[in-house]
Amino acid sequence: MKRLVFALAFVSLPAAAQDAGRGKLIYETQCVGCHYERVHHRERARSRVKSLSDLRDEVAARAKLTGRSFALEDLEDIVEYLNQTH
């Protein structure tokens, strides 16, 4: 149910341009302590991320596990950065 509510929140928001540069900055200051570059490189068959939606879900889930709560704009920027670079 939580995933459905989370997904609907994205659908109902107006489209906004994501900022990969800002996402990189957030990632480097908030995420890189646990995520080193190698963690993003794995066989496609073993990856949980198959779509942009999956990537968004993974970033949100990982943030929640660490007690971080990113604003929606921050989350979208991190996703954009990861999508463009990985």
Please give a quick description of this structure.
Helices cover 58% and strands 0% of the residues. It has four helices and no strands. Mean pLDDT is 79; it is low at 4-15.
Give the secondary structure arrangement, pairings included.
Elements: H1 2-12, H2 20-30, H3 52-65, H4 72-85
Architecture overview:
With 86 residues, this protein is an all-alpha fold. Helix content is 58%, strand content 0%. The chain is built from 4 helices and no strands. The protein is globular.
* Spans where pLDDT lies below 50 across 5 or more residues: 4-15
Helicity range: 55-70%
The H/E string reads HHHH
Question: Biggest sheet, in brief?
Answer: none
> What percentage of amino acids are in beta strands?
under 5%
Entry keywords:
58% helix; mainly alpha; 86 residues; globular
